[in-house]
Amino acid sequence: MDDLFLWFLQLFLACVNFAHAYFFFTWTDEKYLKLRGETHFQPSQLLSRESRYFIGMCEVFAGFCFLIPGIFGVLTWLTPMAAFGFLIVMISATVFHWVREEFDVAILCIFLGLVTGFVAYLRMVVVPL
Known about the structure:
Elements: H1 2-26, H2 29-36, H3 49-72, H4 78-99, H5 103-126
Helix pairs in contact: 1-3, 1-5, 3-4, 4-5
């Protein structure tokens, strides 16, 4: 049962990574500001296009690392490492959004960080692949 629950969490985190990567690859600053309903950001407060593409590629890689090693049984150490890496990203994203006073997104990042830390610990120590 523990393994099935962890697989569900890994699938959830992979989907979150893929969806956010899609967001970074396809959305422009104007679309983001329109979605948020905010126009008070200065251009220096937004991520550059290159930064968004880099983060998007890292999220695609992390999404695959949550799933592929366990499915094929190779390089299974990548799953907890991807979770630890994503945990670092979620801590950084929480600070980034908190400073920009996007508290709703910061709280979502905290939740994803907790789920990711849970998966990282369990896949490393309790129920390894």
